[in-house]
Design a protein that fits this description.
By secondary structure, this protein is α+β, with helices and mostly antiparallel strands. It is about 15% helix and about 10% strand.
Length: about 70
């Protein structure tokens, strides 16, 4: 049996703290400022797990003999 390293993705849901002048600005910062970081209390979004078929041609067999 061969082994492969398959790229996968999934979604998480959580809350981040944003300091802003109003709610619209806070949402804008939350969407664009990657410096905010990831939520400490994130949870998995049910049903979001998927294999990335876009890069299927780049996947190769894992050689464990090395």
């Amino acid at each position: 049996m061969k082994k492969y390293s398959i790229p996968v993705s999934w979604q998480m849901y959580g809350y981040v703290t944003v300091e802003a002048k109003d709610l619209d600005s806070a949402y804008a910062l939350a969407e664009t400022d990657m410096g905010i970081g990831l939520p400490d209390d994130g949870s998995y979004v049910e049903g979001s797990w998927e294999a990335d078929h876009e890069v299927r041609d780049e996947v190769s067999e894992i050689d464990f003999r090395k």
